[in-house]
Amino acid sequence: MLGQVTRGENIHPIVGVIALSTANFIERIGYAYAVGFRVFQISLPAWGTRNDRELMTFFRDLCGAFPNARF
């Protein structure tokens, strides 16, 4: 459940998520999603330079796991 501070008219809570793997992101977002959050800000993992294919795979896997969330 969202707390009283994060409920109400014109209140749009955002959860920031930092992780080192796609699985960690999914686990952490899953916890916040389960208690009612739907908007997330993520930091790219510190894997070094990624090519376009790797970046698209990361976002497809992460965002696809939570189709009703906003990133």
Question: What features would you describe in this structure?
Answer:
This protein is mainly alpha-helical and 71 residues long. It has one domain (7-64). The chain contains 2 helices and 2 strands; from the N terminus they run E-H-E-H. A two-stranded parallel ribbon has the order 1-2. It is elongated.
Characteristics:
mainly alpha; 2 strands; 37% helix; 2 helices; 71 residues; single chain; two-stranded parallel ribbon
Strand order of the largest sheet: 1-2
Weakly predicted, low-confidence segments: none
Given the C-alpha coordinates, what overall shape results? elongated
Q: What is the helix fraction of residues, given as a range? A: 25-40%
- Radius of gyration from the alpha-carbon trace, in angstroms: 13 Å
Structure at a glance:
The chain is built from two helices and two strands.
Secondary-structure topology with pairs:
Layout lengths: L14 E3 L4 H13 L5 E3 L9 H13 L7
